[in-house]
Design goal:
mainly alpha; PX Domain; 3-stranded antiparallel β-sheet; elongated; 3 strands; 484 residues
C-alpha cells in the first residue's frame, strides 16, 4: 500500500518512482534515455479530482521532486536569513524573526503634506509632499500625485503578488470635502509606512526611487519603462532543499487557521478604531466645556459682580470678599492652564494622529492578509495534475508501442520522448513555483505574526501610555486647584 508523507500538504501519492526525472534527464533535454519502469501515479479517488493543486488544502505532494536540487548550488536573492546549510525550518523561522525585529519597530518614518491643487478646471490635481526619514537617519523629500501611488501599487501587485500589500484609499473625493481629503492623506501615509518597513518590499529599487528621488515620477517611469522589472519575484529561482526537508504540514495548518479568523479580526479592529476616535472626540468636547467654565469665572471675578452679590458682607468684612476674589482668580488661572494642556501636549494633534496611525496600520495588515488570500486563489493556478496524467499516458503509450510494434519508425519514438521530456520540464517548473509560493507565504505569515509585537509596543500600549501621561498632567492641575 502506498504511504503518504505527512510532511507534505498536497495530496499526490508517489510510488517507488516518479516522472520527475533526475538532474541529467532534466538538463539534457536532447537525451533519449528514459526509464519506462519509473512512473509517478496520482491516486485517483474520484473522477472529479481538480486539475490544479491547491496548497491551502490538506493534500500531500512528494518532496522528492526537487531531489535534483541537493547537488545544485542555488541561492534565493532578497530572502532574509536564508542559508543553504539549514535542515530545520524552526531555525530558519528564528533567523527570519531576528531579521524582522529590525523592521517591526517601524524604523522608517514618513510625513505627508497635501499641497495646493495645481492645474485649471477639470485638469486640477492634488500633489503630496513626502518627507521620509529612513532607518539609517537619512532624510528625503519628494512630491507625488495619487496616480503615482496607484501605479506603484499596480507594479507591486505584478512583482510581489504573494506579499502583504496594503490597499490605497479611494481616489474619488466628493466635492473636495476637507474631511475626506484628510482621510485620504492619512490613508496614503499608512500605505507608505507599511511599504517602507516591509522586510522585502522596502529594498526594492522602484520603492527607493519613489520615496527617495525627487523627480517627476510619471516622466521617470515612462523613460525607464523598459528597464523596470515587472516579472514575478520567483523568476529563475529554485526552491531550496532545506525548505523541502524541513517542511511540516502543520505550518500550512497554522496559516489556514489564521485565515479563518481574519474577518473577525478586521471587524474587531474597526470597532477599536471607532472607540478610540470617539474617546478623543469626547475628551475634546469636555475641554471645550472647561473653556466655557473659564469664561464664567472671568465674569464672576469682576469687582462689580461680587460686590453687588454680597453687599452686606462687603460692608462688614472687605477681607473675605478679597480672599474670595483671589481664590476665583487663581482657579481661573488653573482652569486656563488645564484647557491649554491639549495644545501644549499636542494631545489632539500629533499624539492623536500617532495613536490612530498605529491602529490603522494593524487593521490594514489584516486586510492585506485577506487580499493576499484572494490573490492566491486567482494567481496560483496550475495544471500539474493534467501534466502528470499526460506524462503517464505518453509513457504508457510508448511502452505499448515498444512492446507491440518494435519495428515502428524511430521518428515516432523520438516525438513521444520529446513530449515526455518537455512535459517533465514544465511539471518541474510548476512544482518549483508552487513551493516557492509556499515559502513566500510562510515568510509573509511570519511577518504577519510579528504584528503581535507591534500591537503590544505601538498600538494598545501607545494608546494607554499617551492617555495615562495626559491624565497624570491633568490630575496635577486639578490637585493644584484643590490646594488653592
Amino acid at each position: 500500500m502506498e504511504q503518504n508523507s505527512d510532511e507534505n500538504p498536497w495530496d499526490i501519492h508517489v510510488t517507488n518512482s516518479s516522472v520527475i526525472p533526475n538532474n541529467q534527464t532534466l538538463y539534457e533535454a536532447g537525451s533519449r534515455d528514459h526509464d519506462t519502469s519509473t512512473n509517478w501515479v496520482r491516486n485517483k479517488q474520484s473522477d472529479n479530482t481538480p486539475s490544479s493543486l491547491n496548497i491551502f488544502e490538506d493534500q500531500k505532494l512528494t518532496k522528492n521532486f526537487a531531489g535534483f536540487e541537493s547537488k545544485t548550488k542555488t541561492t534565493i536573492e532578497n530572502t532574509p536569513g536564508v542559508k543553504r546549510t539549514k535542515t530545520d525550518l524552526s531555525e530558519w523561522f528564528n533567523e527570519l524573526r531576528r531579521e524582522y525585529a529590525n523592521y517591526i519597530e517601524f524604523p522608517s518614518k514618513i510625513a505627508l503634506k497635501q499641497l495646493e491643487p495645481k492645474g485649471l478646471a477639470f485638469f486640477k490635481h492634488i500633489e503630496y509632499e513626502l518627507n521620509v526619514l529612513n532607518g539609517s537617519g537619512n532624510m528625503y523629500t519628494t512630491t507625488r500625485r495619487y496616480s503615482d501611488f496607484s501605479w506603484l501599487l499596480e507594479y507591486l501587485l505584478q512583482k510581489y503578488p504573494f506579499r502583504l500589500l496594503p490597499e490605497l484609499p479611494p481616489k474619488i473625493i466628493p466635492k473636495n470635502d476637507p474631511k475626506v481629503l484628510k482621510k485620504r492623506l492619512d490613508g496614503l501615509s499608512y500605505f507608505s509606512e507599511l511599504l517602507l518597513n516591509h522586510p522585502i518590499i522596502s529594498n526594492n529599487d522602484v520603492i527607493k526611487v519613489f520615496f527617495e528621488v525627487d523627480c517627476e515620477f510619471a516622466s521617470w517611469r515612462k523613460s525607464n519603462n523598459s528597464k523596470i522589472d515587472f516579472t514575478e519575484e520567483f523568476l529563475n529561482l529554485k526552491i531550496e532543499q532545506f525548505f523541502l526537508n524541513g517542511w511540516d504540514k502543520k505550518y500550512m495548518g497554522f496559516f489556514v487557521s489564521s485565515l479563518g479568523k481574519l474577518d473577525t479580526q478586521v471587524f474587531i479592529w474597526e470597532k477599536l478604531i471607532q472607540h478610540v476616535d470617539r474617546h478623543y472626540s469626547k475628551q475634546r468636547s469636555l475641554f471645550n466645556e472647561e473653556f466655557n467654565m473659564i469664561q464664567q469665572l472671568n465674569e464672576l471675578t469682576s469687582k462689580e459682580c461680587l460686590n453687588e452679590t454680597f453687599p452686606l458682607i462687603d460692608d462688614l468684612n472687605y477681607l473675605e470678599i478679597h480672599e474670595t476674589k483671589i481664590f476665583l482668580q487663581d482657579a481661573k488661572k488653573c482652569y486656563t492652564e488645564l484647557v491649554e494642556l491639549p495644545k501644549n501636549e499636542n494631545y489632539f494633534t500629533a499624539n492623536f494622529d500617532r495613536v490612530m496611525a498605529s491602529f490603522h496600520i494593524v487593521l490594514m495588515t489584516f486586510q492585506a492578509m485577506k487580499a493576499l488570500k484572494e490573490r492566491f486563489d486567482c494567481l496560483s493556478g496550475n495544471n500539474i495534475l493534467v501534466l502528470n496524467d499526460k506524462i503517464e499516458s505518453n509513457i504508457q503509450y510508448l511502452n505499448n508501442l515498444i512492446k507491440n510494434s518494435p519495428d515502428s519508425k524511430s521518428q515516432e519514438y523520438d516525438s513521444i520522448q520529446k513530449n515526455i521530456i518537455r512535459d517533465k520540464l514544465e511539471l518541474r517548473e510548476q512544482l518549483n513555483r508552487q513551493w516557492l509560493i509556499k515559502k513566500c507565504l510562510m515568510e509573509e505569515f511570519l511577518w504577519f505574526n510579528e504584528f503581535n509585537i507591534y500591537i503590544r509596543h505601538h498600538t494598545l500600549s501607545e494608546y494607554i501610555k499617551k492617555n495615562s501621561q495626559f491624565m497624570d498632567i491633568c490630575a496635577s492641575k486639578w490637585n493644584a486647584m484643590f490646594e488653592l
